[in-house]
Amino acid sequence: MNDRAGTDGHGSDTLSPALLTVLSGPSGVGKTTLAAQVREAHPEVWLSVSATTRTPRPGEIDGVHYFFYDRPMFEDLIAKGEFLEHAEYAGNLYGTPRQPVEERLDSGQPVLLEIELQGARQIRTTMPEARLVFLAPPSWEVLEQRLRGRGTEPEDVIAKRLATGRTELAAESEFDVTIVNTTVEEAAAELVRLVTEPASRA
Ligand code: 5GP
């Protein structure tokens, strides 16, 4: 992948906000930081709390960062249709609890999902009105550095995530808009605009 700077996309300057925004992109690109910045600037945007079977990282709180379930429990919830989307990623299951998202959307509150590619594709099919935002790294090298630099995963997990990252980067064109995460400030400003600005902006 070539080096990239700034924000590009498919006419992002003329897009109006969607009530449901999906933020996707390879592991390590900075989705969580960006989503947190949007929430800070706009607390009215509701950030979905996902469920996962992976082990909590130091500092992660059950019910705040994720709902941490074991696999049988997670599979039971899948069978009951409790997830809006779900996917297996690097050996663990991840899913978006359906009910809280539907409740917010029904009441007109903007919702942000931070999920990987397979989940984004499911949302594209089941909720076509959602806006899919792809967060891209400025370069492959930067992605690799960020993933290793955060020091949260052992080498075998990093390798799995990087391999998946190649596939995810190749899917960029499936998204409505791309934000290149050159600086967190610029990327956050762009995402805030997409999630919250009135349609008249266009
Ligand atoms: P992590 O283990 O680094 O927290 O997350 C791994 C990947 O799973 C990230 O790309 C993250 O965006 C994605 N992810 C987190 N929650 C969900 C979810 O509810 N559904 C899907 N499909 N992916 C998720």
From TrEMBL:
Alphabetical list of Gene3D superfamilies matching this protein: Guanylate Kinase phosphate binding domain, P-loop containing nucleotide triphosphate hydrolases
Pfam families reported in the protein's UniProt record: Guanylate_kin
Alphabetized UniProt keyword annotations: ATP-binding, Cytoplasm, Kinase, Nucleotide-binding, Transferase
Keyword Transferase among record annotations: yes
Annotated compartments: Cytoplasm
Residues noted as binding ATP in the record, renumbered to the chain: G25, P26, S27, G28, V29, G30, K31, T32
Reactions the enzyme catalyzes: GMP + ATP = GDP + ADP
Annotated ranges, domain Guanylate kinase-like: 18-196
SMART domains linked to this entry: GuKc (SM00072)
E.C. code: 2.7.4.8
Any GO molecular function: kinase activity
The keyword Chloroplast is assigned to this record: no
Family listed: Belongs to the guanylate kinase family.
Function in brief: Essential for recycling GMP and indirectly, cGMP.
Name used for this protein in its record: Guanylate kinase
Organism: Catenulispora subtropica
